[in-house]
Amino acid sequence: MSERYAIPAGEHEHEIAVQRSRFRAAIAPAASVEDARAFVRSIRDRYPDATHHCWAYLVGAPGATDRVGMSDDGEPHGTAGRPMLKVLSHAPIGDVVVVVTRWYGGTKLGTGGLARAYGEAVQQVLAVAPRAERIEWQELDVELDYAAVEPLRRMLPAHEAEIIDESWTERAAMRLRLPLERVEAFRAQVIEMSNGTARVT
Questions:
Q1: CA torsion sign, 149 to 152 to 157 to 160?
Q2: Which CATH class is domain 4-134?
Q3: In 10-159, at which residue ranges do the beta strands (DSSP E only) sit?
Q4: What are the φ and ψ backbone dihedral angles of 53, each rounded to 5 degrees?
Q5: CB 46: neighbour CB atoms within 10 A?
Q6: Do the Cβ atoms of 133 and 6 come closer than 8 Å?
Q7: What is the CATH topology of the domain spanning 136-200?
Q8: How far is CA 28 from CA 15, 47, 120, 124, in A?
Q9: What residues does each domain of the chain span?
Q10: 155-193, pLDDT tens digit by residue?
């Protein structure tokens, strides 16, 4: 699984109209299946007068298929959840849930029209929703001589590392937090910078 990827920055909604039917897409981050299902429930509660609340979610990195779900919520089989999930699966975003709430406008759209409308609603909300980045973090303990402290501090920004805690005894000890993908390069640079005297655990 990728260690960093785009996710929704929060909840966002966007509405389209197709032949007088309203399709309101609501998107949110979902770090778990439970998060996704809770968001679906919240949208049902928010719009109790709607005709349908169709949904799809993808938990994990973009394109992952092990934790996905979808529902047509009473629309003809395959006309809502499947096209919604297809859009999510091809988007460069993960940990995401989308609910498309429909208010029927009096004109039947047919199965092809419904599938296009639900897919389009998801595409449009994805296009306008703010994004954040999911990063898998790792904590490291570094013990080193005092002479190496300032060189270490200068290294931190390049590795997106930050100091969480530090203590000063015979040697300096720091607890750092940095993205998992940067750990090995950081460890190698610390060992090289300290001529092998630093300890990184």
A1: negative
A2: alpha beta
A3: 12-18, 21-29, 52-58, 68-71, 96-103, 131-135, 137-144
A4: -125, 90
A5: 14
A6: yes
A7: Alpha-Beta Plaits (3.30.70)
A8: 15, 16, 17, 14
A9: 4-134, 136-200
A10: 999 999 999 999 999 999 999 999 888 999 999 999 999
